[in-house]
Amino acid sequence: MKFIDRQTELRQLLRLSGAKSGGLAVVWGRRRVGKTRLLLEWSKRENGLYLVGDESAPAIQRKYMADRIAEKYSGFNEVDYPDWRSLLTRLAREAQQSSWPGPVIIDELPYLAVAAPGIASVLQRWIDHEAKAAGLCVALAGSSQRMMHGIVLDQSAPLFGRAAVAIRVKPIAAGYLPQVFGLKENYQAIMAQAVWGGIPRYWELAQPFGADLFAAVDNLLLNPLGPLHNELDTLLLEEFPPAPALRSILDCIGMGAHRPSEMAGRLGRPVTSLSRPLSRLLEMGMIRREIPFGESEKSSKRALYKLEDPFVRSWFGLVASYRSSLADATLKIRKNIWERKRTWLFASAWEEICRSSVPRLLAGGVAKLGPWLPAARYWRGNDPEWDVISVSLDGNCLLLGEVKWSERILTGREVLEIFSGLKKKKWPGIAGLPHERVLYAAFVPRHVRGVSLPPDCCLVNADHVIGALAEKINLADREL
Predict the structure, then answer these.
(1) What values do phi and psi take at 320, rounded to 5?
(2) Is 82 a member of any domain?
(3) 199-225, pLDDT tens digit by residue?
(4) 445, CA 20 to 30 Å: which among 72, 113, 133, 334?
(5) CB within 8 A of 63, min separation 6: which ones?
(6) 351, 369, 398 — which closes off a domain?
(7) What is the pTM of this model?
(8) CA atoms of 212 and 292, how far apart (whole Å)
């Protein structure tokens, strides 16, 4: 799959490597999200040196790195380096003598830190002195957010405050899905997003199947021999430190227990014992803490824990619940599982994508009273739930929205029924909401054209949402 997205991140890195004085970049993010591809693209454009740590003894790690450096500086691997300081010092000296500014990229830094706990202090001294004197641009990268924070980002970390660029690589926006899979309709991108999320590694595996989503799901996910059938277990084992003990928490959330009290009941554990594992899963980007619109992030007692990654949600919906059946299932049985779960997967993804698109929507009538602040869901006691609530940037307008998923094209009558139901719902019980200017929004993937709507109503479809999330892809690509 060709390199896509990451224009903002790449631009930051190119700006750093273009500076004459060098500097430090820190790059992190969950596994499979595309950190290595970003770093390799940067290295290729800037004639950089890409080094990667592995799970071996420090002496072996240094030997592998010396072999790689020798491809740039002949004879570099003809010496045995007794420690990391000696290897890094010589690298800086070679760079200074050849007037090479880097970048030197050290990926999978946590592997090195596990084998040699003192390497963070060694890197700190090297970056402060030898690398700085050589004008080297240096990048440190890793997947373990906990360890990257401990080495670089926490206030007590040896390298804290030294990074000129700090990038958390996030999943790719759904707006890129149509071009990756050759989709003719934007509503199909919602379906692909529901299964693969924004993780480029999964896109790369699914790309050969094009628009045939079931074929991709069957071959990669449902089939016990598929490369993603055991993916969740693999992700947990690859964490630093390995996190298989967190699986039971994910199982609870995947089965619908979204409150700590519900999880504790299912696991037979006290609620207080879940604080640390939930924090770790939040750090890993596996789950998110969702609070109702209008409540404080810190003080809300109605928080729910949801699976953050659409792929992880798909894995629990399609694999975890049917693992025994899938062991020897026929194609017909696997397709039956898919048919039973697909609508739920699509509807969940559509609702999340609609909310995330609200601040960027420029079509569908939403822009006429915007721009809008980030949207959220609302629930409280016996009050009716609201799928989408937002307030305009100037604080004068309120957006109340309903999200409906359907693979077929909705008729004008069905659309008007959605708005009729919206206007009959009890307002959310949130103090301080603007009442004078209200815009009701219906988010539906596809609908007939020419639906006549009242001035306080707007209709948003998959074309509007995917267009908003595409973020002017072609223009951004041309800039680089």
Answers:
(1) -55, -45
(2) yes
(3) 999 999 999 999 999 999 999 999 999
(4) 334
(5) 77, 80
(6) 351
(7) 0.87
(8) 36
